[in-house]
Design a protein that fits this description.
By secondary structure, this protein is mainly alpha-helical. The chain has eleven helices and no strands. It has helices spanning 8-11, 30-34, 39-52, 65-104, 113-136, 149-166, 176-187, 197-209, 212-232, 236-239, 242-250.
Length: 251
């Protein structure tokens, strides 16, 4: 602030009242910084300034860098005291949760071939059991919000796939003239009482090809549902081995 002015009203809270109040300090000037004035000398100059100033000496106990540091330290300590119990409670809860998760992974014994093979067999068996239960609808946890597992597969085959087949016209682009011409072409110069096999295949193949889109759609939906079931299976122990879990999902 400029020389010849004072901020007593502000420092005493008569202009802007603050709950913690104001603390007046004297910072080093640009000249002091350029001249590398020691911090100790700057603090001594600050103390002398407030002690000898005709206005500020009445509130010198509330001014100075040392007073500001003390006040900030008190605020910090009070903040720590207020929030430390909550933080401690959260940490204890996380420790308990983590210990329970760790216990669910099972005990880690010596890494020998026999124990590893046994653990691998157990993890794959648990995965297969959960996968089968999800498909058969006998799992312990089943969704009530949407179809899943075997019920979803049943819906895909009996509703989506069936409606896709119903939408296909089996005689599209096939007329009696086409059938007659195909029979004649396959018999050559001879007459025939029956539809030759070559003519039958020639007529049926394009119609069978029209069944391909709904069949591919059915396969894709069934595959996606099986992958979804697979991702929801497997205990925590298998998830400790991401490459194993990825390989099982690939199979």
């Amino acid at each position: 602030m400029d020389r010849g002015t004072n901020s007593l009203d502000i420092l005493t809270g008569r202009v802007y009242p603050l709950r913690l109040g104001f603390v007046g300090v004297v910072n080093r000037s640009q000249e002091d910084t350029a001249g590398s004035k020691p911090i100790a000398d700057a603090l001594a100059h600050e103390a002398e300034f407030f002690r000898s100033h005709p206005v500020y000496r009445t509130i010198q106990q509330h001014c100075g860098t040392a007073t500001l540091a003390k006040l900030l330290n008190q605020v910090l300590m009070q903040h720590i005291r207020d929030h430390l119990p909550t933080i401690k409670t959260k940490i204890n809860a996380l420790i308990s949760q983590t210990e329970q998760e760790l216990a669910s992974y099972g005990r880690m014994g010596p890494a020998d071939a026999a124990s590893n093979a046994s653990r691998l067999l157990k993890m794959v068996t648990v995965f297969a059991s959960e996968f089968t239960s999800s498909i058969e609808g006998t799992g312990a946890e089943m969704s009530t919000a949407e179809l899943c597992g075997g019920a979803r597969l049943y819906y895909i085959f009996n509703d989506i796939f069936a409606s896709g087949l119903d939408s296909v016209n089996p005689t599209a682009n096939l007329t009696n003239s086409d059938i007659r011409t195909a029979i004649r072409n396959s018999t050559g110069p001879r007459a025939s009482l029956f539809v030759p096999e070559i003519a039958f295949q020639l007529l049926v193949k394009p119609q069978i090809r029209s069944l391909e889109p709904p069949a591919q759609r059915c396969v894709q939906l069934a595959y996606e549902e099986l992958m979804k079931v697979g991702l929801s299976c497997g205990n925590n122990e298998m998830r400790r081995y991401p490459r194993l879990h990825a390989k099982v999902m690939e199979v």
